[in-house]
Write a structure and sequence with these properties.
313 residues; mainly alpha; two-stranded antiparallel sheet
Length: 313
């Protein structure tokens, strides 16, 4: 249970201090280091003149290289650590940068504060930092919806999933997962450039997040005062989402808050007609975003408490 306790340490440290701006200014962040490697491979291996099959193979090789490098580094670091509770503490401290607990809260809170103050322009600027849709077209409901969706999805990708893999495998698990997630965010989308090169990254990410996404949804439902509605919405609507995984935490959040999420949205002037989650519910407002943050805090406390209990058992 040492890895489980280490993940509890990582969550506690991140909740208390996050990743300090001064530290980021001096050394960056491990995710930016991983992103630098991915960017270099993308520039050198993803050639538009190659046939689609060659680009798929190159993308698979790039993904495996990045995952192996990060997971291997975690395995080497873990192998030289002492045993016992000292190892738990050290693994937790090394895993801490891979858990985005405080960062997620801060980014969503930066949207909620101006939205509650009716400062739509400031809320648009803040929400543009966490979603890719066109902020100029968003009013209160659209801003709240975008931020709630980001909160739900990133709770899974940024906290539950890395903690899940870290609890199972220690540093190789959490480092390897962070590589997978960063690969997906950088090249795993269906743009013209990455349709083939990023195909493997997207599929690997789907597999890595399959259990954590569903676990996140059930934790959201568990801590919700609307548990039956959250579970019902999740089971009914999760499969309607364009993502095989993101629909679970998002649908659970929609049911827990009694609002509708997803639906049509605009990216770079192009409207995508996404299906609604919890379609018959009302549109979210600023107060619902604040309630979503409170739900997020309760969910993270439950996750951390579960890790501590398992570590002490």
């Amino acid at each position: 249970m040492g890895f489980v306790g280490a993940m509890a340490v990582a969550m506690i440290v991140d909740a208390l201090v996050g990743w300090p701006a001064a530290l980021f200014a001096r050394i960056g962040h491990p995710v930016t280091w991983i992103g630098g490697l991915i960017g270099r491979l993308d520039r050198n291996w993803n050639r538009s003149t190659d046939a689609p099959l060659i680009r798929r193979i190159a993308g698979l090789a790039a993904a495996l290289l990045v995952i192996a490098a990060c997971g291997g580094l975690g395995w080497i670091m873990q192998g030289v650590l002492p045993t016992g509770w000292g190892s738990v503490l050290l693994i937790g401290l090394l895993a801490w940068p891979m858990v985005a607990l405080r960062s997620l809260y801060d980014h969503v809170d930066a949207v909620a504060a101006p939205l509650q103050a009716d400062d739509i322009d400031a809320a648009r600027v803040a929400v543009a930092q966490i979603v890719g849709r066109d902020p100029a077209l968003l009013e209160e409901a659209g801003i709240a919806r975008a931020a709630i969706e980001s909160l739900a999805e990133n709770a899974s990708d940024g906290i539950v999933a890395p903690v899940f893999w870290g609890a199972l495998l220690g540093l190789p698990g959490i480092f390897g997962y962070k590589a997978i997630n960063t690969l997906d965010s950088m090249i795993g989308h269906r743009s013209e450039r990455h349709l083939y090169f990023g195909w493997a990254a997207a599929r690997i990410d789907d597999v890595a997040n399959f259990i954590p996404a569903r676990l996140t949804g059930f934790i959201f439902a568990l801590v919700s005062p609307r548990l039956p509605e959250a579970v019902s919405c999740m089971v009914r609507d999760a499969s309607r989402h364009r993502s095989v995984n993101a629909g679970w935490p998002e649908a659970a959040m929609a049911g827990a808050l009694g609002v509708r999420l997803s639906g049509p949205r605009s990216y770079h002037g192009h409207v995508t007609d996404e299906p609604w989650l919890n379609e018959t519910a009302r549109d979210p407002q600023a107060a619902d975003l604040r309630q979503g943050l409170r739900l997020y805090i309760r969910a993270m406390l439950v996750l951390g408490g579960l890790l501590v209990a398992l570590a002490l058992a």
